[in-house]
Structures are given as structure tokens and as C-alpha cells.
Design a protein that fits this description.
globular, 6 strands, 38% helix
Length: 130
């Protein structure tokens, strides 16, 4: 019984460690997402933010498009700014999967909602439709 309990506790500990991504990898991944999304719809907002906050916003856009269920909120937060990205049901355009999505940006005194769509090419890159 004690062995089973210790096995369970150690598996929880190991699982929680597996999903931690080192800070250096986050930066590398976010740079790839930034290039792939070409600024995303967040870039169309005209809101001035730090590069770190811009990357957080774009990672949320990518995660919403790539793996979020229909209508699920993908939140992000930065310094004095936060947001939510909500992607809707995928649809087909030619051979590409596409999704419409909304990016809600929360500032200290305002909210900006930006609607957009993006399509995923065969090589896995999401390209916003402007």
C-alpha cells in the first residue's frame, strides 16, 4: 500500500516536471511563432507593447489556432496588458484548414477586440488572412 502511494506521488512529481519548459525554450518557440504568424492579428491593433508581451500575445494566438477547442479562451498576461484569444470551429479552404478567431486585449482603461482568420498550410504554419 505504501509502495503504491509513493509510486503515485512520484508520478505526479515527475509529470509536473515534464511539462515545465525552460525559459530559453520559450523564447526560441515564441520567435518561431512570431515569424509564422507575421505579427498575427495582435500586430494590427497598433498597441505599443514590449517585445516580451507581444510574444506572449502571439503564443496565445498560435495555441488557440493550433490546439484550442472551439470557443475556448486562451488567456495571456503581460505588464499592464492582458488578453484572451478565442478560436472558432475549423473550416476547409482548398487543402488548408482555417479558423476564425478573436483577440481581446485588455488595457488599464480600455478593451480592444480584433477579429481575424488564419489558415494552416501543409507545413504547419498558420498564416493570418488580412
Amino acid at each position: 500500500m505504501v509502495f503504491v502511494f509513493l509510486s503515485f506521488v512520484s508520478s505526479i512529481f515527475i509529470t509536473s516536471c515534464v511539462f515545465r519548459v525552460p525559459e530559453s525554450n520559450i523564447s526560441e518557440q515564441s520567435n518561431n511563432y512570431l515569424r509564422a504568424l507575421r505579427g498575427g492579428i495582435f500586430g494590427r491593433s497598433g498597441i505599443e507593447v514590449s517585445e516580451r508581451d507581444r510574444k506572449k500575445a502571439l503564443i496565445a494566438e498560435y495555441n488557440a489556432l493550433e490546439s484550442s477547442p472551439n470557443g475556448k479562451v486562451v488567456p495571456w498576461s503581460g505588464r499592464n496588458i492582458s488578453g484572451q484569444v478565442i478560436a472558432f470551429s475549423p473550416y476547409q479552404v482548398g487543402s488548408e484548414n482555417c479558423r476564425q478567431y478573436i483577440h481581446k486585449i485588455f488595457l488599464s482603461d480600455a478593451q480592444v477586440d480584433i477579429n481575424g482568420a488564419a489558415c494552416r498550410s501543409r507545413n504547419g504554419i498558420w498564416t493570418p488572412l488580412f
